[in-house]
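Friendly challenge for the regulars: who can give me the structure tokens for this chain first? No prize, just bragging rights.
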Amino acid sequence: MRGELKKLGLVPQTTYLYMQGHHIMNNVVMKLLIPVCTALRRERELEIRRLAGHDEQFRNELTGYENSLVNVEVVLRRNVAYKTLFHYEWLKHDIQEYLKNGVAKNHAEASAGKMQQSAAPRK
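First reply, four minutes later:
Bragging rights claimed.
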């Protein structure tokens, strides 16, 4: 398939092939992270139980721990570190170039096409 795509002119330097972000998030990232976070949470709860001197201390420590937890999905959605990735800058630059050059060029081509149509004799 790689060869077929190259024949069509699709190369990594000029083509963006991105899945929709929410599909990656829901079907890949969260499927991997939720079991890991659950295991880490259980591990910490067992450690709190082991270190607690008595039941009241255990409940207090566990309550404090549970109140400090944040849903992993919320943390990921608040993350803006993607803006430092070269893919983001690459895409941003290409969009800016398109808006600066492409829109004006496409508009001029469309206007020229309309002028040619209006200049053509009607039957």
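The mean pLDDT is 80. The helical segments are 2-7, 21-51, 55-68, 72-78, 86-119. Your move, everyone else.
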